[in-house]
């Protein structure tokens, strides 16, 4: 963590770290499976290519030709069975097919039970990111308190900085909760 010498530094550090937490939450949401095809769902899958774990999107082109189908066209056709195997081994519950040139991944509509599991998982991710934002707030609060204790800032300045920090924390937490609510609605939506 960078050295915090003023309340301005503290707020800048808080802003940067909290915005990263929100962005990370967005990325994790993209990997959650709904009934709709989304190339980001494959981001977490790694394929063992010549002894190196590689993301699927670095081995070929991933396209979404229709709402319930992903097509992966690898640049090296010898990797097709490896991609197929990696997708089957993942916990996404997908059943890809391949013709030796491309891998097709149909996206079945999740069952009611699977939807509930996904929502439960979504809530776990949400809570982890809420906790991350609260931890950032705690760290920055401690830094501001330390500045006041060392007489580098006044008590009034400390109070103003902590109030600004609270407002920003609420704003970022609200962003995460809104994203979560939208994703939950998408998951529970039956097409």
TrEMBL record:
Residues 126-164 form a coiled coil. The keyword Cytoplasm applies. Its main location: cytoplasm. GO terms for molecular function: ribosomal large subunit binding. InterPro entries: Ribosome_recyc_fac, Ribosome_recyc_fac_dom, RRF_sf. Residues 25-188 form the Ribosome recycling factor domain. One of its GO terms (cellular component) is cytoplasm. Gene3D superfamilies: 3.30.1360.40, Ribosome-recycling factor (1.10.132.20). The keyword Protein biosynthesis applies. GO terms for biological process: translational termination. It is found in: Cytoplasm. Keywords: Coiled coil, Cytoplasm, Protein biosynthesis. Belongs to the RRF family. Responsible for the release of ribosomes from messenger RNA at the termination of protein biosynthesis. May increase the efficiency of translation by recycling ribosomes from one round of translation to another. This is Ribosome-recycling factor. It comes from Candidatus Acidiferrum panamense. The gene is frr.
